[in-house]
Specification:
Layout (H helix, E strand, L loop, with lengths): L7 H22 L4 E9 L4 E8 L2 E6 L3 E6 L4 E7 L3 E8 L2 E2 L9 E4 L7 E8 L8 E6 L15 E7 L5 E9 L4 E8 L2 E3 L8 E8 L2 E14 L2 E12 L3 E2 L5 E13 L2 E13 L2 H4 L7 E10 L5 E10 L5 E8 L2 E2 L3 E11 L6 E19 L2 E13 L2 E6 L7
Parallel strand pairs: 1-9
Antiparallel strand pairs: 1-4, 2-3, 2-5, 5-8, 6-7, 6-9, 10-21, 11-12, 12-13, 13-15, 14-16, 15-16, 16-17, 17-19, 18-19, 19-20, 21-22, 22-23, 23-25, 24-25, 25-26, 26-27, 27-28
């Protein structure tokens, strides 16, 4: 008897029908080993390969060359999808051309599979999948304590601080784009040499343990309560509003100083301090900021579109930083990776280059949300401005 096995798939099934019971008996007592197949898509981004296996029961879609792992003796189904307007040139199993084995749906089944193979598909024509585009809004959610805030404290502050002797104060504070502070004002009982206001002090706002924290330093020469006094000191504390006693809201921290009072040395280290903050002063503690991101496809003279991105950052102090258009890339598996720095501060006249503010977005995935609209569904946002920095899940900042 002469048997024609023109179709290897039918051959496998015919042989399996003869030895199936014996094979099943053997496989039932022998643990199947894992098999790795490599699937190569050529050229890159020219199409996709849908796959499924019977052992284990699994499926997925390869958007780029990759590997499929399954148990020995599994059946493997592959379906080849060229991009819109494209076609399949060739499908190879190792050195064998299996293009003619594809059914009308460009599907083929292999199995039971016993060893590793290289499956290579070549597509032709067809437009590359278009990158998702749109304008997306992000803002800092001030009610999310797990995220790192960025603070600007420019403003006037007055009240009574619980120093060793409670004293009224009236201080003006200015903060620049690097987070550096300058302050000047008066404290009851202190009179600088020559009169007038107290000598100015300096400091900075930085991120410490995930919180915006003010660090101040200053010096004094004059009289305290009519007694000749000179000295210098530092103070530090997180810019978080809390109860500072008797139901009063304010900020807390510690202070250290060295002084000479009537020629007698005096000093203290890490003395707890609390400064009440009125509702009006609390409005000076700006933590709100927002980001508008725009991604678009811009046609070139060659007819091929280029993905471009720009962003506009509104700082807590109200300044608006505009970043110029820049070329970017999109990956269906890794999403967008974007970095914006050296934008133009359009809130000052004349406009000025902002060298301090940086926004980085990594792994931004976009999911269709109807029509040509997309919604960010993943990624990380890293932000750095006003001398502070933070990071968080992109979706935590999404403006619905």
């Amino acid at each position: 008897m002469k048997i024609h096995l023109n179709n290897p798939l039918r051959s496998c099934r015919w042989l399996l029908s003869l030895v199936g019971p014996a094979m099943l008996a053997v496989s039932a007592t022998t643990q199947a080993a894992s098999v790795n197949w490599t699937v190569s898509i050529n050229p890159k981004n020219s199409g996709t390969v849908a796959w499924s296996t019977t052992a284990p029961v699994a499926n997925g879609v390869l958007t780029q060359s990759g590997k499929i792992t399954f148990d020995q003796y599994s059946f493997v189904d592959l379906t080849f999808h060229p991009n819109a307007g494209g076609s399949i040139v060739k499908v190879m199993k190792n050195a064998d051309d299996v293009t003619l084995w594809l059914d009308p749906s460009n599907h083929i089944q292999f199995g039971p599979v016993g060893s590793p193979h290289l499956i290579s598909v070549t597509f032709a024509g067809g437009a590359a999948p278009s990158a998702p585009t749109g304008t997306f809004g992000f803002a800092f959610p001030t009610n999310n304590a797990s995220l790192t805030a960025i603070a600007d404290v420019t403003g006037n502050y007055s009240g009574a601080a619980n120093f060793t002797i409670p004293r009224n104060y009236n201080i003006d504070v200015a903060q620049d784009e690097s987070g550096k502070l300058a302050y000047i004002g008066t404290i009851d009982g202190f009179t600088p040499t020559g009169g007038g206001e107290l000598a100015g002090g300096v400091g900075a706002v930085t991120t410490v343990n995930g919180k915006p924290t003010a660090q101040l330093q200053g010096s004094f020469a004059g009289t305290r309560d009519g007694v000749a006094t000179t000295g210098s000191g530092t103070a530090t504390g997180p810019l978080e509003i809390s109860n500072v006693g008797t139901g009063t809201s304010g900020v807390t921290g510690t202070a250290s100083y060295k002084a000479k009072v009537a020629g007698v040395p005096a000093s203290e280290s890490n003395v707890p301090i609390a400064m009440p903050v009125t509702p009006a002063e609390r409005a000076n503690l700006h933590k709100n900021w927002s980001l508008s991101l725009t991604i678009t496809n811009i046609p070139t003279s060659t007819g091929k579109a280029v993905i471009m991105a720009t962003a506009q950052l509104t700082l807590p102090n109200g300044n608006v930083i505009v970043y110029p258009l820049k070329k970017t890339k999109y990956s269906s598996t890794a999403g967008y990776k974007l970095s914006f720095k050296k934008g133009q501060n359009i809130s000052v006249i004349p406009t000025a280059l902002d060298k301090r503010s940086t926004i980085t977005i990594t792994g931004m995935m976009l999911t269709p949300s109807g029509g040509t609209s997309y919604t960010p569904t993943g990624g990380t946002l890293t932000y750095q401005f006003l001398g502070q920095s933070g990071t968080g899940n992109l979706t935590d900042f999404l403006v619905e």
